[in-house]
Amino acid sequence: MSASAERDAGVFAPASTDSGLWSRYAPRMRRVIEHVYDHLDQPLDLNALADIACLSPHHWHRVYHAMHGETMAQTVKRLRLHRAAGHLAHTARPIAQVARDAGYPTLASFNRTFKSVYGLPPARYRASGLHRHFVASHTEDSAPGYEVTLRELPAQPLLGVEHRGSFMSIGRAFDLLYARIASTGLGRPGMRMLALYFDDPAVTPEAELRSVAAVAGCAQPTTDVGLVHTETPAGLHAVLNYVGPYASMRAAYDWLYGSWLPRSGHEPAAGPLVEEYFNNPRDTPPNELRTEILLSLRPS
Questions:
Q1: Is-contact 202 4, C-beta < 8 A?
Q2: Which residue ranges does UniProt annotate as crossing the membrane (predicted)?
Q3: Whole-angstrom Cα distance, residue 214 to residue 194?
Q4: I want to staple 124 with a disulfide (CB 3.0 to 4.6 A). Which of 71, 120, 167, 253 is the partner?
């Protein structure tokens, strides 16, 4: 089982942990975020989003920025560019079409913006991005600049939100998770952000893919707040330290399963794959995002 690691860049911790602010506005925020995820291919009028939130544009933009630490326009730009990076890395879709789907009126404006965020213009990212380095190293002894370590790990209790569908859209589940945690006052400093992936997108229909957006280290609820209790697998794990865009992570999985695992003498255990995220895509450049991929192994 492997997980396609094309993740929505919506995984984040909220900028504001004021439970009063979140309890007042979380339902409105959820409506807007769900609308954005469902309509990334279409023009998104920011004032129309304020109508969905049932707030005046003036107040809506201030509330959103206070809660999330970025403007609504920045959120839309980030999500669209992340999806565009996935299309460039894993499809042959023409760059001009990728630019149109990302909402850019001209190829030149898309090229400038993409380069400013990802460090390479779209054509060079497709030809020589991080995903290409993993593919090139498929038959080598190790991936350049990356390593796999073996760790014995205990089961880690988690609170999460179940997600069904494309792994690309798990960011929606993280948005809902943090809204519920913040609005119920369960947030604590040092919470860890993880995701569990239960299916292989190469053989499972997209609509049936199962995953969980989760956190470790928050307070435990005393009532039902709509969160599921789960845990990470215990035992020996292969841990791949990945630094770079989420959109390029699929090739890291291909290398882990196709190159490292056969040479390692280990076999994968039943259970979910786990990713742990160590920084916030709202304020971290894609090339600096750090993720650990944890593959549970069978006992020797």
A1: yes
A2: none
A3: 5
A4: 120
Is the pLDDT confidence value at 14 over 80? no
Listed in order, the ranges of the chain carrying CATH 3.20.80.10 are 148-296
Class of domain 148-296: alpha beta
The boundaries of every CATH 1.10.10.60 domain in the chain are: 19-128
* CA 102, chain centre distance (Å): 18
User: How far apart, in whole angstroms, are the C-alpha atoms of residue 240 and residue 256?
Assistant: 8
pLDDT of residue 66: 82
- Write down the mean pLDDT value for the chain: 85
Listed in sequence order, the residues at least 6 apart from 2 whose beta carbon sits closer than 8 Å to its beta carbon are: 200, 202, 253, 254, 256, 257, 273
Beta bridge partners of 210: 164
Cβ-in-10-Å burial (0-12, 13-18, 19+) of 299 comes to exposed
What number of other Cβ atoms are within 10 A of residue 7's Cβ?
A: 30
Would you say the C-alpha torsion 186, 188, 191, 193 has a positive or negative sign?
positive
